[in-house]
Amino acid sequence: MKKSSVIILVILFAAAALFFYAFLYGGLSNTATPEPTQPTGKLTSIESYVFQHISELSPEKEVLGGKFYVTGIKAEGGYGTVNYEDGHIALVADFTYTADDVTGIKITSFVVRK
């Protein structure tokens, strides 16, 4: 075997050994971020929550096969107002809510204006 072939083999072996060492002990094998033990940050906005659950929240039911959808919403500081309709009837409701990082969003009252 030529001297240059031996040198190339030694370099390749050393590079492979360094990569293996870095993979096992250098943290390359565990690059994923650990799962948090409890939720962090706002889970969802109150507006998104109401948009997604308006049919369940409304004490009035959709009519003639319509499906409720939100046309306007304002929410801040635990109080909100939502305008919604199903294509046949339009309603306005006032609601209160609580929201935190651990338990998420909870609508505490939902009252349709007369």
Describe, in plain words, how this protein is organized in 3D.
The protein is α+β, with helices and mostly antiparallel strands and 114 residues long. The protein has helices at 3-25, 46-57; strands spanning 69-76, 79-85, 90-100, 104-112. The protein contains two helices and four strands. It has a four-stranded antiparallel β-sheet, with helices on one face. It is rod-shaped.
User: Could you estimate the helical fraction of the residues in percent?
Assistant: 25-40%
Oligomer status: single chain
Trace the largest sheet across and list its strands.
1-2-3-4
Percentage beta strand = 25-35%
Please give the largest β-sheet: 4 strands, antiparallel
Radius of gyration: 29 Å
Furnish the topology, listing elements before pairings:
Blueprint: H1 3-25, H2 46-57, E1 69-76, E2 79-85, E3 90-100, E4 104-112
Antiparallel strand pairs: 1-2, 2-3, 3-4
Brief account:
This protein has 114 residues and is of the alpha+beta class.
List the keywords.
alpha+beta, rod-shaped, four-stranded antiparallel β-sheet, 114 residues
